């Protein structure tokens, strides 16, 4: 039996994550594996695929988790080193549950587990994590069953072939592609996926090293893009790609070394899918630029707006039979990839669009960047609800409308400008995002809202 308060700190809304040796160890993940397998056994499932990233702690944790799973009579397919979207590929291809050991973009001392059911269906707090937690608090009874078996499978080649069949790049013009793998799993998957493509790949930090000796594998933080921005210009590259630690997200840098907004990437990929599947539905979270729903509507598609977070996006993808979904954080979801997210597949779509035009990437992306944005700005706040209400009260005369789908989203009167303030799921933070027609408007709104939050 385990303490619920301690579990609450590690088993979060979307995954399991904590500091190795402090929050997470082999005994802990063995219990998580047993609880997950017990849940699955009750649903008639028989198999769990397990993958892990390059963090020093990952192999041993994956093995311990496998012990927990097999103790409940379920079989394990050990994938070894893989990216998170590679694990989703396995869960979809083998039609089995999956567990990925990674802490994504977090620093080296962290690790965690992303869980899914067969077909890469996500397991979040409302869809299994709370039940796993309950089982661990109550104590997991030994199963009166024959222990499951463990087999090993290398799926990297199959994964690469599958992605290359989804996006035709054979007719692309030659491109110089700079890639920063940040010593993460992109260094494992990019060579396999790009091997047969007509691109000159210039690698940066491809050595797998979970201590991240060059910079954190978190391209959402601008400081971690600096090396790639410089490298793109030095190499005369047509495009730069930056992957996070488990390579499920991909950020893009243009030929000038300037970052491309993930919202703009979302709009470009959405347009490609609407050309292929006219009239389709596209999912976007409420932080993405207004460019995304505008462009989807202009191209005859149906935009559906949802909360931030992969579990919400994936459920909406399934509910609306959407062909594509995107988030401001560079998570991109694909119906033809079991509604799961794949940074690699998004990258291939951007390369296909660039390879079919004579334009530079900055010229190509200009049409998808209609507004200016602040990016996400975090403030430490003890009473998030009170801060949100103070914003609404003090700015009441300027507000046209408010919705509460996720935090508060405020449309300002007489302008295209809007902002969203929402609470973090895991920390005492308020997250602010602002979008407007000009950078000056963005700056003014940011200063005004932060002045209230941080007063």
TrEMBL record:
One of its GO terms (biological process) is carbohydrate metabolic process. One of its GO terms (molecular function) is metal ion binding. Residues 376-449 form the Alpha-D-phosphohexomutase C-terminal domain. Keywords: Isomerase, Magnesium, Metal-binding, Phosphoprotein. CDD domains: PMM_PGM. It holds the Pfam family PGM_PMM_I. Its cofactor is Mg(2+). Residues 11-136, 158-257, 263-371 form the Alpha-D-phosphohexomutase alpha/beta/alpha domain. Belongs to the phosphohexose mutase family. This is Phosphomannomutase/phosphoglucomutase. The lineage of its organism: Bacteria, Bacillati, Actinomycetota, Actinomycetes, Mycobacteriales.
């Amino acid at each position: 039996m385990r303490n619920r308060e301690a579990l609450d700190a590690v088993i979060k809304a979307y995954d399991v994550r904590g500091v190795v040796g402090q929050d997470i160890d082999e005994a802990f993940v063995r219990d998580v594996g047993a609880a997950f397998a017990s849940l699955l056994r009750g649903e008639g499932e028989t198999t769990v695929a397990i993958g892990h990233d390059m963090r020093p702690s990952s192999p041993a944790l994956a093995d311990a988790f496998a012990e927990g799973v097999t103790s409940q009579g379920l079989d394990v397919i050990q994938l070894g080193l893989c990216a998170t979207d590679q694990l989703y590929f396995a869960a979809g291809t083998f039609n089995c549950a999956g567990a990925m050991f990674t802490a994504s973009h977090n620093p080296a001392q962290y690790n965690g587990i992303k869980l899914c059911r067969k077909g890469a269906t996500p397991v979040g707090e409302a869809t299994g994590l709370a039940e796993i937690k309950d089982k661990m608090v109550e104590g997991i009874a030994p199963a009166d069953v024959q222990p499951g078996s463990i087999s090993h499978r290398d799926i990297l080649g199959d994964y690469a072939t599958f992605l290359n069949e989804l996006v035709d790049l054979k007719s692309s013009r030659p491109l110089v592609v700079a890639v920063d793998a940040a010593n993460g799993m992109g260094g494992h998957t990019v060579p396999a996926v790009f091997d047969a493509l007509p691109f000159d790949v210039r690698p940066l930090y491809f050595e797998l090293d979970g201590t991240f000796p060059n910079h954190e594998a978190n391209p959402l933080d601008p400081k971690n893009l600096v090396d790639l921005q410089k490298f793109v210009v030095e190499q005369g590259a047509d495009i730069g790609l930056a992957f996070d630690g488990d390579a499920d997200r991909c950020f893009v840098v243009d030929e000038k070394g300037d970052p491309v907004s993930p919202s703009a990437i979302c709009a470009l990929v959405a347009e490609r899918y609407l050309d292929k599947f006219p009239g389709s539905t596209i999912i976007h979270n409420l932080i993405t630029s207004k460019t995304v729903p505008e462009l989807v509507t202009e191209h005859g598609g149906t935009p559906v707006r949802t909360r931030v977070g992969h579990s919400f996006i994936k459920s909406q993808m399934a509910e609306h039979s959407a062909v594509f979904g995107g988030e401001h954080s560079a998570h991109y979801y694909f119906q033809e990839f079991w509604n799961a997210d794949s940074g690699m597949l998004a990258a291939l779509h951007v390369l296909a669009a660039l390879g079919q035009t004579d334009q530079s990437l900055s010229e190509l992306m200009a049409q998808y960047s209609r507004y200016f944005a602040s990016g996400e700005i975090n403030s430490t706040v003890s009473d998030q609800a009170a801060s949100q209400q103070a914003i609404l009260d003090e700015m009441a005369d300027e507000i046209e409308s408010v919705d509460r789908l996720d935090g508060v989203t405020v449309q300002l009167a007489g302008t295209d400008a809007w902002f969203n303030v929402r609470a973090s799921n895991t920390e005492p933070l308020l997250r602010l995002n602002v979008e407007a027609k000009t950078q000056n408007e963005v700056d003014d709104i940011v200063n005004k809202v932060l002045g209230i939050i941080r007063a």
